[in-house]
From TrEMBL:
Keywords: Oxidoreductase, Peroxidase
Keyword Protease (UniProt): no
PANTHER family, sorted: HYDROLASE, ALPHA/BETA FOLD FAMILY PROTEIN, NON-HEME CHLOROPEROXIDASE-RELATED
Recorded coiled-coil stretches: none
The UniProt record lists the keyword Oxidoreductase: yes
Entry-linked Pfam families: Abhydrolase_1
Protein name from the UniProt record: Chloride peroxidase
Domain of life assignment: Bacteria
InterPro entries, sorted: AB_hydrolase, AB_hydrolase_1, AB_hydrolase_fold, Epox_hydrolase-like
Lineage: Bacteria, Thermotogati, Deinococcota, Deinococci, Deinococcales
Ranges of residues in domain AB hydrolase-1: 26-265
Amino acid sequence: MSYVTVGQENGQNIDLYFEDHGSGQPVVLIHGFPLNGHSWERQEAALLDAGHRVITYDRRGFGASSKPSSGYDYDTFTADLHALLTHLDVEGATLVGFSMGTGEVTRYIAQHGTERVRKAVLMGPIPPYLLKTDDNPEGVDGSVFEGIKAAIRQDRAAYLTEFLQNFYNADALLGTRVSEEVLRMSWNVAARASARATLACVDTWLTDFRADVDAFARTHVPTLIIHGDADRILPFDATAARLPALIPGSELVVLKDGPHNILWTFAEEVNAALLSFLRK
């Protein structure tokens, strides 16, 4: 198993677990909440078959990475990503984020530019700003997130069951695009995440990325955005629908009836769009 040390807590290393497979043009896959790097299995297979080097890792607090008590903010997450890319000396990479992972992609390019990056992909994105405020009326009311935090505090296991139902739109797609076994697998992964990280990340979702998106856009990095129009976790109108106007030249692919986790339920469509973008 491969790890990179990104910090310390009480004299103990904070380590990120990563996997680095294949050769060719590197693609770095950054997972969503509350899963881990293995959630990209259907994309990793397609990318390896197409001749790419594929790097996945588990965000701190999740998967096989360390589970410290702090650092669940995008400045730290981005520093973790930079430490990994530096450790592997990655150049010319395509950064691909899903859900929470799109925050790392956006802030990384805003802060570090394109020295190590050639393209960016935002799937089910969280930017530009999820919280509804006076100057961000397209966002989601803050009471929604207070309710999520209360549910996690009261019964994290029950919350995860409900969350994953909406993560996959199981009422509409169970038995066709997702199975009971996949739901159970996802619950098992999510349940093993740090309870502290699971709760802390809810506030992290409300990061204001508008300045980051502006800086990102000024790099002119080729960008692909993919989103399901039936997303119940990160509503399309509050997120991806706003990005083409903010990132000129970006390409938007909308998957009809796609839930939040399009990586599994619409894997063929996602992979086709991703591989086509990488070939350009």
